[in-house]
Structure formats: C-alpha cells, structure tokens
Amino acid sequence: MTPLAAYAVAGGVAVVAGWAVPHLAMRGLASTLESSRLRARNYRGTEVFLGLGIVWAVWAVALLVAGTLVEAVATLSDVSYGSVEMGLLEGPLTMPLYAVPIILTTGALLFGMLDDVFGSHGDKGFRGHLGALFAGRLTTGGMKLVGIGALAAVYGWHAAEKGAAAGHIASVSTRMLWWMAATVVIALTANLVNLMDLRPGRALKTYSVLAVAAGVAFSLNAVAQYRAFIAQSGAVFGTADAVVTVACMLTVLLGPVSAVWRLDLGERGMLGDSGSNAMGAIVGYLMAGSLPLPWLGALAVVLLAMNVLSERVSFSAMIEKTPPLRFLDGLGRLKVATGASDPEGETQGKRRVRYDAGAGKRS
C-alpha cells in the first residue's frame, strides 16, 4: 500500500466514523429528542430537551465498528497483521479508532444519564454525595462518582502500563504512582468538564481546547513509538505521516462536538451529565496516556484543587469577572437581556428535570 493510499484510507475512515456518523445521527435524532418527555430547564429557565450526550454513544460505537472493519480488511487481504506495509493503515494513521476508550466513554455516559434521569438534587458536590454514602444512603450522584471512579482506575492502569513501557520503567512503586495519578486525572477531568456544563457551549468549548492539546500530545507519542518500531526494518515514518495522524485524531475527537454545537449553543438541547462526563473522561484518558509521570502528578494536583475549589466558589462568577474568559464563554451563544435572572443557580444539581407525561411529574 502506498503512503498516499494509506492517507486516503485513514482520513476517510476518520471522517466517516468520527464526523459523518455523529452528524447524521444527531440530524435524525434531534426532532425525536425534542418531542420526548424528558425535558430540562437551563440557566435562564428556558426549557430544552435533555439528551445531546447520546452523540458520544453513537460516536463510540462508530469507532468500534470502524476499527473492526480495519482489522477485518487486514486479515482478509492476506497482509500479515502488524507488517510494515500494512502498518501505514494499522499504525498511528488509524490510531483514533483504537485510542479512544470505548468502555470508559459509554460507561461515563451511562452513569451520567442515571444522574440526569433519576437524580435527586438534595445532595450536591463531593461533600453531599460522600456524606450521604457514609450515612448509608447511595445517591445517583454517589453512584456516578463510584462508577466513573472505578472505570478511571481500570483505564488508569492501561495508561500507566503504556507510560511505563514508553519510559522503560519497571519499578513497582513508580507504576503504582503512575496508576494513581492517571486514575485521578481521568476521574477528575470527567467531573471538571461536567462542572463547566452550566452555560450553553461552555462544556463543549472546554472539551475542545483540552482535546486538541491532549490529542496532539497523544498522537505524537504514538508516532514516536511507532517510528522506533518500524525503524528496525529500515522503513521510515515521516513528517507527513505524523501530520496525517494528528489530523485524523483531531477529526475524530471534534466530530461529536460539531454534531451538537448548534443544538447546545442554540438552547434547543442540553448535554447533561451524560455528555459532559463522557467528554471529560475521554480527555482525561488521553492526557494520562501522553504525559510523563512528573507532569501527570502535577496535573492531578491541579485538577484536585479545581474540583475542591468548585465546592466553595462559582466558576461562572469567576468567568464573568475575567474579560478574556467572558468573551470566549459568550462566543456563539444566544444574546440575553442584561440583568436576566439565573433561576437554576450555579450547580448542575439544581437543574430541574420534568416529564411531560407518564406516571408522574418531577421538577
């Protein structure tokens, strides 16, 4: 397979699985979700449909199917799996199909959806949910905390193993530190992006910035390791290959964002905990799998500080007081009359969810 053909295949797969499928799915689902019984009120009290986070489940399945098709083509075409020739197709150029944590993404989405649909809003934040847990009562937020934390531990170990292999680190204590730091980064990034979902588009913008940085770092790490692997056979993985790899990764990571951008910023729908937790978990995993241990540890400390700070201060108030952040936060958002009220408060837990019909009504 020539490099040009490999670029075309890699780019085509990334565009179809990471971009086109989420767009087509949300185009078809938007009207269905909008007419559904599950509604929510945003920070201005405007009623919107809840369920934009579904795009991440569609996206994860599309990547899983695409990855399986790539493996099937490699096997059925009688090209030895992992060979240098097929490596252009199976290596970093199609890495997004394998790098995205499918189970972590869907698991975080499901735990978030549990809190969206069945959550009681009397207990808020780490303090409220952990306090209820210690009192023998499991809230949906507490279930989400435990569930995403467990998934973060599983994928944190995967990230630690990759980091240890790349750095040739065999020390048990170092691996344990790496595992702990990676777990904290994945879990707290998932929660931090969720904390940003207090205004239309804010969580999507936060994710996009973090995803670009983490996606580039993750891709370049994979390229460096792959170059070392194929160098043994005298083959070369050049600069153009690295550029295509990064482009494919960013296409895949930003595809779902583009699919729901107008719906979120146009205040037609809401990501909810399902979408924001899934986005944060993805970014956390990419950062955990690309940063060296000292930087990973520092990031874990910063994320912990920000999550603890959110229990005491309003991020929305801080953004409003900082002109550059206020400008970026307002980009693309519907204009609101000065002095508009904020009936839902500053915490995601105060979002009112109601059912228009059925056995009962919750608000």
How would you describe this protein?
The structure is a single chain. The chain has one domain (3-333). It has 14 helices and four strands. The chain has helices spanning 3-34, 54-76, 84-90, 96-99, 102-118, 125-134, 140-167, 172-196, 202-230, 239-265, 272-288, 293-309, 315-320, 323-330; strands at residues 38-41, 47-50, 269-270, 353-355. Strand 1 (38-41) and strand 2 (47-50) form a beta hairpin. The radius of gyration is 21 Å and the shape is globular. It starts with a helix and ends in an 8-residue tail after the last strand.
Task: Name the features.
single chain; 363 residues; mainly alpha; disordered C terminus
Short description, anyone?
It is built from 14 helices and 4 strands. By secondary structure, it is mainly alpha-helical.
Strand order of the largest sheet: 3-2-1-4
The tally of structural domains comes to: 1
| Silhouette | globular
Q: What proportion strand?
A: under 5%
Beginning-to-end CA distance, first to last residue: 59 Å
pLDDT averaged residue by residue:
82
Major β-sheet annotation: 4 strands, mixed
Low-confidence stretches: 80-88, 338-350, 354-363
Q: What structural class should be given to the helix and strand makeup? A: mainly alpha
Q: What oligomeric state do these chains adopt?
A: single chain
Radius of gyration: 21 Å
> What level of helicity do the residues show?
55-70%
Would you list the SSEs in sequence order as H and E? HEEHHHHHHHHHEHHHHE
How many β-strand stretches?
Answer: 4
Q: So how many helices? A: 14
